[in-house]
Every structure is written in structure tokens, then in C-alpha cells.
User: Fold this.
Amino acid sequence: MSVLSGKKVLLGISGGIAAFKTAALVRLFIKAGAEVKVVMTPASKDFITPLTLSTLSKNPVYSSFTDEENENEVWNNHVDLGLWADLMIIAPATANTLSKMATGNADNFLIATYLSAKCPVYFAPAMDLDMYQHGSTKKSIDTLVGYSNHFIPATSGELASGLVGEGRMAEPEDIVAFIEKDVQDKLPLKNKKILITAGPTYEAMDPVRFIGNHSSGKMGFELAKVAANLGAQVILVSGPTKETVAHGLITVIAVVSAEEMYQACHQHYADSDIAICAAAVADYKPAEVADQKIKKKGDNMVIQLEKTKDILASLGEQKKHQFLVGFALETNNELENAKSKLKRKNLDLIVLNSLQDKGAGFGKATNKVTLINNKEQIEAFELKSKTEVAQDIFNTILKAHA
Ligand code: CTP
Assistant:
């Protein structure tokens, strides 16, 4: 999955022949899972039509301060558009547009939008050889780099004028790869390893029966996805679940019992930076597992159970540099029980679910959590989707771990 998946990309097109390549650029962003909106200078419309770009981006294309198609002249808000974007790319950026960006000459909608954008801005120049070499162009580029805009250099090759040299806009594939790498490099959990447990465990009684619980695994899987989207390498140790995930940064280790989960966690804990135990691990398991199916006998049956290993507590005991997060599912005396679990298991953060809250707990798409850190600071959240809950948890981890 691309790091651009779910990102809002604003493409600004200025008037050069390389504008024809922006159709491919829009398609690549869409293929990467981004949402794309396009802003054009009036001159760029001579090189590629707004209809092409709106069809490919599935969004209206903006090129003037008012909506020309609408007789009521609706005002196009460049500020909203600039704030909407997660990133802006100006490609091709002509000498004229570079100069206007550098001097803040907002005489067209694209420059006004650029000046309103608070997101990272990338620019890919395209022009003829001598224009690209001119001191004025170089000065504009230096000024924009000084504004922390990201310069995607032009490449060498045959130019529209017939001259051969530097000035060709970088190819659309290379522009997308440049932006993906830059976004990836800046992810807050890049180079971090995160261990996450998820789902239930099944404790065998005999070859066909087990003791289990209703955990769906969804919360752990959502945590894994959010962590990977923040750039972390994730080891997801999961008990039996219907959940699936396909992400280059997530390795799923499927386990069945608490003992298998314990072993897998300890294999990966030493070099993990963060560990989150979201699994609903069985607290007890049958003391003996029958080799053959247990036959029906009298009216009653007693199964001797013994304690499983507490994985989270064992990680707490061996904690060195790791940031350790546990969950607490409580029905009464919630805050006090969660605080005591946080201390007993040597955690940095505990996520409290109360079964008294509607929509929280096992098998639901939503959850309502309260986060308590090791300084006993408490943060209570509303009922949210498990994806949003996972984001809230990571926002808190990032604040504490920064
Ligand atoms: N946990 C674990 N290994 C176990 C039991 C629990 O890693 N054998 C972890 C869970 O993943 C969760 C936390 O411990 O992060 C708390 O689980 P919970 O069942 O709420 O608490 P327990 O410690 O089992 O205590 P109790 O059942 O008495 O509330």
C-alpha cells in the first residue's frame, strides 16, 4: 500500500507543454489511493483540458476565483482548497509560475491557493534549457527551497524546442516516487518496531474442543494498520480471527493458545520500541489436554484449569527501553482497577474499556476508551470507530514517546 493512500493531493498545473503529462500524474495519484483536486493556471488550459483532469480526478477543476460555468458566479475559495490538501504539487512549474510563487504575485487562482496552503509543497519545473539555466529561474528555485518547498529537479533530454539539455519535467512516475519517499521518510514511527497482540486465544481441552472468548481481533488489527501507516514495522501476533490485513510493513504471526502467543511475543520483544497487548488472552487453560475426544459420561463434568502466563505482565517485568501499553476490560470500579493493572504490570499506558459503556467491547465496530498513563493522567474519549480509537491511542503514544 502506498503512503499516499488516503492523502488529499492538490495538483497545480501551469502553462507548459509538459502539462499534457499531468493526466498520467493524476492517474498515478489515484492509483496510489490518494484523493486528487486540480488547480490550473489559465495558460495551462491550452495544453490539457479541465474536462480530462476532472474526469480522471473525479473532482471539479479550479482555475479562476469565480465559477465561470455558474451564472451566479460562485466564489471559489482558495483558502479552503489550500487548507484541504495534505500535500500540494505544482507540475509543471513554469519559469513564470516559479517567479510568482517566489514573489507572492497572486494574480491567478493557482498562486493564491499556493500561498494559502499550509501543507508540504512540491514543485517540478519544466521549461526550455536556457530558461532553466537563467539566474532568475535559479533564484526563484532557491527562494522556494528557502520557504521549505520541495524541489523535484527537471531532467535532461530532448525539449519541445528541439534543444537537448536540462529542462524536462520529471516523469510522473518519478514525481510520485519522490513524494512517496519524502512522506515515508518523515513518518513519525519510521524505523520503529511495534509488537501488537490481537484476538482471542483458544485453550484446547481435547482434539476438538477448546475454551475461548468472543474477541474479534478488530482493535488489534486497527492498531497495526495505524502503526504501519505511521511508518512502523509491525509484528502482529494474533489469535484465531476473521480479520485480515495486507500491508508491506505488517507481519502477522498467527497463534492459537496463550502459550504460543507468549512465545511469539518474547521472540520479538527485545528489539521492539513499543508493545501493545490488545489480545483477550485466556486467563486459565485446561490443566490436561486429552489425546482423544472426551466422551460423554455422567450428568456433570469438572475440568481442572490452571493459570496461563500473563504475557503483558511478563513484558512489564522485562521492560527496558520499550513503551508498554495494555488494555483493561472492566465491568465495575473501572478507573481504580485499570490504575492498579497499570502499576502491577509496569505499563506506560493503559486503555480502559468499560463494559458499562454501550458500543464498547468485544465484536463491535466501535469502542469507547479512557487512557491512563503512568503519571495517572486520564484522557476520556467519546464512542468512536475502532480505527479512530487506534488513532487516538497512537496520538497519545506519540506525545508521550516523542
Ligand atoms: N493479558 C495478557 N496475558 C494474559 C492475560 C491478559 O497479556 N494471560 C493482557 C491483555 O492483553 C490486556 C491486559 O493483560 O492488555 C489486561 O487484561 P484483562 O483480562 O483485563 O486483565 P487481567 O490481568 O486478566 O485481570 P482480570 O481478568 O482479573 O481483570
